[in-house]
Amino acid sequence: MKTITVEALKAKIDAGEKINLVDVREPHEHNAFNIGGILLPLGQVQSLQIDEIDRKSTRLNSSH
């Protein structure tokens, strides 16, 4: 998993690149504006959950 800037994300979206977006904001922030990512609040993320995040993003990508 890697972190990128907002500008780099925009460039990838504009280029039509397939991305896996993990939204680490809290649920109330997500409810106010959904940016289309997998919601996984930062307060709940543990370092060993990276495999679970990868599995969720794989399921989302295979459903499109």
The description of the largest β-sheet is: 2 strands, parallel
Q: What is the mean pLDDT?
A: 79
Helical coverage, percent range = 40-55%
Tell me the strand order in the biggest sheet. 1-2
| Percent of sequence in beta strands | 5-15%
State the helix count.
Answer: 3
**Form type:** globular
* Gyration radius from CA atoms, angstroms: 12 Å
Low-pLDDT residue intervals, each spanning 5 or more residues = none
Structural account:
- With 64 residues, this protein is mainly alpha-helical.
- 44% of the residues lie in helices and 6% in strands.
- It contains three helices and two strands.
- The chain has helices spanning 6-14, 27-32, 50-62, and strands at 22-23, 38-39.
- It has a two-stranded parallel sheet with strand order 1-2.
- The protein is globular, with a radius of gyration of 12 Å.
Concise overview:
The chain has 64 residues and is mainly alpha-helical. Helices cover 44% and strands 6% of the residues.
